[in-house]
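Example for tutorial group B:
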């Protein structure tokens, strides 16, 4: 399978990349692990491909809040030791594809591509990530919760680049985890849940849930969070199960009852694992 013809531009600076993206149907390429397959299938036919891998927004730093360069590969994120990233995000990155995919695929590409089953999107949502976006006219920030508009669709304009993913600090003492049930054929999650949580021993005192593989685009599941915050410790599974019918499934889901069942299982498991990592709040 061969893609349609295109021009290749290797950007040497952010300004040059943004300038090259001014062409209406130009597309940035980072790891290429989603864009190239889309081009080969001719779902994407950019006349210009702008290589942004030369740009500097790569790596992880902690200036009070953790910032991850959009070009950081999943593997770099997992292996770096300088900054302690939340368990949930590390587990999302570890769940992506195989070593080859994690070696080339970038966290920014994973978010910008907006696959409805993106692993890393669930973590960004549960952590309330703030996305830094650059364009020729300047910079703006977008909350992860507002970023995903639908399957393969985001708030990003074609001429914009995602440069950085900023993670607000989770509540002190909270724990986090990501659990997914993978499609055995593709390795993508059939359903994945990213949870950040804390308890006072009986009720949850904090709960954030990001879901992927279930809805038209990854979501912050506020209805599930609200139900969990009201539930006693013994009633949490019922709270999850009871709230999931309010979550609108992707239009191509064939067996809604099964999808909601898997969603309930992954949220429950991720919550248990997050709480096992948390300190009981007073
Ligand atoms: C075999 C295989 C298995 C996979 N399994 C999984 C899986 O289990 N879970 C999962 O979540 N993903 C999986 N993936 C997808 C992989 O995670 C994505 O390819 C990757 O995250 C996309 O990042 P990339 O750097 O390759 O982006 P690219 O393919 O380079 O780009 C993808 C899209 O994002 C845009 N883009 C990239 N970077 C930026 C940026 N900084 N700013 C603005 N737009 C940008 C591009 O223009 C393009 O439209 C798999 C891919 C393959 C090939």
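The residue assignment follows.
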């Amino acid at each position: 399978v061969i893609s349609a013809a295109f021009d290749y531009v290797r950007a040497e600076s952010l300004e040059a990349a943004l300038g090259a993206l001014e062409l209406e149907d130009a597309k940035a390429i980072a790891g290429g692990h989603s864009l190239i397959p889309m081009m080969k299938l001719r779902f994407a036919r950019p006349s210009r491909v702008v290589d942004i891998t030369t740009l500097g927004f790569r790596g992880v730093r902690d200036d009070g809040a953790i910032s991850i360069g959009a070009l950081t590969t999943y593997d770099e994120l997992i292996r770096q030791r300088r900054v302690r990233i939340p368990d949930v995000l590390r587990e999302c990155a570890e769940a992506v594809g195989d070593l080859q995919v994690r070696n080339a695929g970038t966290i920014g590409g994973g978010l910008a591509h907006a696959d409805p089953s993106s692993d890393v999107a669930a973590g960004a949502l549960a952590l309330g990530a703030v996305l830094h976006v650059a364009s020729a006219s300047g910079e703006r920030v977008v909350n992860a919760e507002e970023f995903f508009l639908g399957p393969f669709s985001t708030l990003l304009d074609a001429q914009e680049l995602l440069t950085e993913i900023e993670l607000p600090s989770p509540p002190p003492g909270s724990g986090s985890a990501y659990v997914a049930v993978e499609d055995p054929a593709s390795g993508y999650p059939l359903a994945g849940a990213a949870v950040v949580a804390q308890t006072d021993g009986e009720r949850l005192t904090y709960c954030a849930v990001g879901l992927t593989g279930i809805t038209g685009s990854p979501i912050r599941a506020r209805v599930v969070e609200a139900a969990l915050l009201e539930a006693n410790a013994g009633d949490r599974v019922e709270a999850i199960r009871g709230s999931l019918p309010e979550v609108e499934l992707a239009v191509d889901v064939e067996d809604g009852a099964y999808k909601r069942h898997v969603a309930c299982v992954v949220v429950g498991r991720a919550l248990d694992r997050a709480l096992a990592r948390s300190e009981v709040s007073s």
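The CA atoms of residues 94 and 206 lie 25 Å apart. Compare this with the pattern of hydrophobic and polar residues in the output above.
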